[in-house]
Design goal:
With 273 residues, the protein is of the alpha+beta class. Helices cover 33% and strands 29% of the residues. It is built from eight helices and eleven strands. Strands 5, 6, 7, 8 and 9 form a five-stranded antiparallel β-sheet that branches. Strands 1-2-3-4 form a four-stranded antiparallel β-sheet. A hairpin with a 4-residue loop joins strand 10 and strand 11. Helix 7 runs antiparallel to helix 8.
Length: 273
């Protein structure tokens, strides 16, 4: 991926843990690396084919001067996020914020925070079988769509399915969505859990009834196996109620372990039934 670089953009702003930093202000320096494909711009020599770095600088200035953050970590996060959201040709961005006048009682050149943020594709399964299931799922989708860390949400139709595993319970309403997110897998999982908690999700019986169930099925082509998270979802290839909605919105998404598309996995499952 090609790079457009902005080096040492000097901005006077009011960020810091201490009150005098917020009142008096100080100088900050912002470095940005914008990752984009410049081939079209290089071929046609037209600005609309590239990222306008002057507009990026103006946006950085607005974020740094129109907000007051305690931490430069927050300033860097907000800056990266707004750049990615406002410039559609960007896949990812590096942001470094240097604070040469930080309140440190020692000789130093500067302190800085440098982060990398990029858009990732995630697929989330949706389910509910308690109360107004459609409303629970619709509320969850709305919260995901309204998250500042997510864009381009596409939702499947909802289907009624028989319970899986623990069968002594009501039928489920199931669906799926695909989105782009700047959150890490664990950051996205935290968001999903917070949405479940707001729906009064109770985890008492494995595979048991629930007001809302959100499962991370895919995250790019990542393979993750930790005590907190397994991606791709460990049993998705056996679950028609997951595969059918996912197939509607992303039939050619490829399982990074099985090396099969969702369409192929669903067809194989149908043959085994």
């Amino acid at each position: 991926m090609d790079e457009i670089r902005i080096d040492n953009l000097k901005i006077f702003a009011h960020h810091g843990v201490f009150e005098h930093e917020n009142i008096n202000g100080q100088n900050f320096f912002v470095n940005a690396v914008l990752y984009t494909d410049t081939e079209k711009a290089g071929t046609f020599d037209e600005l609309e084919c590239s990222v306008d770095y002057s507009s990026v600088c103006k946006l950085i200035y607005q974020i740094m001067t129109q907000n007051t953050f305690k931490l430069i970590e927050k300033a860097a996060q907000k800056t990266a996020l707004e750049i990615l959201k406002n410039f559609s040709l960007l896949k990812s961005v590096d942001i470094e914020i240097r604070k040469p006048e930080a309140p440190i009682e020692m000789q130093f050149e500067s302190v800085s925070v440098k982060i990398h943020r990029e858009w990732h594709t995630a697929i989330i399964a949706l389910g509910s079988n308690i109360g107004n299931s459609r409303k629970y799922i619709e509320n969850a989708v709305e919260q995901i769509e309204n998250s500042e860390y997510i864009k381009d949400v596409k939702v499947s139709d909802l289907i009624l399915t028989k319970p899986y595993g623990y069968t002594e319970q009501d039928d489920f309403l199931n669906g799926a969505l695909i989105c782009n997110t700047v959150l890490s897998p664990n950051g996205l999982l935290d968001l999903m859990h917070s949405i479940e908690n707001r729906a009064n999700r109770i985890r008492e019986i494995h595979w048991g009834p629930r007001t809302l169930d959100l499962d991370l099925i895919f995250y790019d082509d990542a393979v993750i196996d930790t005590p907190d998270l397994t991606v791709p979802h460990i049993d998705m290839h056996n679950r028609a109620f997951v595969l059918q909605p996912v197939h509607q919105i992303a039939p050619y998404y490829r399982h990074p372990v099985l090396n099969l598309t969702v369409s192929q996995i669903l067809e194989r499952l149908k043959q085994h039934d």
